[in-house]
Q: What sequence folds into this?
């Protein structure tokens, strides 16, 4: 069965330093993978998605993720954190083309 | 373009009462989803509609949860009777095409069952 594991429940970084949110996936075939962000009291917003094209995917707000089949990973990165990046981030795998299976989430804290 | 609308935003009820949530998807989106997000967990799909037909309701607790999407536009999710463990955020999402992977989420309804 397709699933994702987010390796950190909480990540804390200082403003201006790099962000790394880790995600490993399990899939019996080439998956579609996503990162969504959820700000407090707001809906989930799509950051980026991978659908078997380029392995390095660029998203909104300076985020990017790299699909590594050998490591079954899809980590989310950003070179320099901003206070507005503080939120909860979900790694997601698509099952049967349209059913989304979410990871447990990683809460990102950005310190000034 | 207006986003996915949900109401109410918050609801507090006592156990064994009933409650209903409403969702209006983005105009023209054929696919509509309801998710349950329990505190500390990722959203879990409850039911998926394609127009006004159910595609997947395998994780919907049918003894107490029901959902409908009359006329293939807006949708209602009902819980009757509610249990303490139903306390969660209920998210509605829609997709622009049948089987489309990109889903657009509403702000959610936060339910507290006392």
A:
């Amino acid at each position: 069965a397709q699933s994702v594991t987010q390796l950190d429940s909480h990540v804390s970084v200082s403003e201006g330093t790099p962000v790394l949110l880790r995600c490993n996936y399990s899939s019996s075939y080439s998956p579609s993978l996503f990162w969504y962000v959820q700000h407090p009291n707001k809906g989930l917003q799509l950051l980026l998605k991978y659908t078997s094209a380029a392995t390095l995917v660029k998203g909104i707000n300076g985020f990017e993720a790299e699909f590594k089949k050998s490591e079954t990973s899809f980590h989310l990165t950003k070179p320099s954190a901003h206070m507005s990046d503080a939120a909860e981030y979900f790694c997601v795998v698509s099952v049967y083309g349209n059913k989304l299976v979410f990871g447990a989430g990683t809460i990102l804290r950005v310190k000034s | 373009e207006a986003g996915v609308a949900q109401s109410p935003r918050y609801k507090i009820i006592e156990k064994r009462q009933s409650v209903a949530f409403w969702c209006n998807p983005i105009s023209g989106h054929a696919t509509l989803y309801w998710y349950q997000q329990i505190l500390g967990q990722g959203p879990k799909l409850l039911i998926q509609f394609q127009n006004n037909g159910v595609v997947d309701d395998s994780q919907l607790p049918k003894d107490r949860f029901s959902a409908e999407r009359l006329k293939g536009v807006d949708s209602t999710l009902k819980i009757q009777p509610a249990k303490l463990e139903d306390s969660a955020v209920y998210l509605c999402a829609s997709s622009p095409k049948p089987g489309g992977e990109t889903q657009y989420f509403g702000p959610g309804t936060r339910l507290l069952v006392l």
